[in-house]
Methyltransferase domain-containing protein (Halobacillus litoralis), 235 residues
Amino acid sequence: MKEMIRNYEDVLDMLDSLLREPAEFWNGFYNDREKGVPFFENIPDENLVGYFKNGWLRPRRVLELGCGPGRNAIYLAKQGCQVDAVDLSEESLKWAHERARAEEVDIHFMNENLFELNVEPSTYDLVYDSGCFHHIAPHRRMDYIKLLKKALIPGGFYGLTCFKEKGEYGGADISDWEVYRSRSLLGGLGYSERKLREIFSGFSSREIREMEDRRQTSNVFGVPGLLTALFQKEI
């Protein structure tokens, strides 16, 4: 019987079905490339660019979670990184492949659910997530952190861009319990510096700040209402 809970994985699958946007949702979201979504532009996050400019990150092996149309993966490849980039949406990856070919960079794109991703332990120097984490339901955070710790080398970095609480583009300011009372992530959960430090307490933090507003520039992505963070796995 399909809807029978027999183990912990069945519980997770049931909760996923109540809260997670399916692949069809994201395929529809990326299908209209002209709808003016700010992060559709093919430019990298301003914080990610800054990490390389100030020497915190160097060209190494990278895993990007929720890569979308590939803008950050392309930047990372141009810095000399070996990039694996995963996304649930086939439509977003079609766009990402087109962009990568046009930019003449080699990126390994994977159409997978990140919770079913099979990675070798201590493989990546950097795991980067721009806009995926705030769509992760609370019951999946432990699996998310487990993936980070498995994927990263000792001393490896985890970079994050996510909704700030009550941000301009989203960021529901509700408790984890309220997510399940309302059976909704309300478009994406919002976070504060305190919440991020608590959730990722197993990592040391290099920087947590608001994203800079760079809408008047053309070479990097930066909008208000987002938080950026760079954590490091302990050696």
Notes: The chain has one domain: 8-30+41-233. The chain has a mean pLDDT of 94.
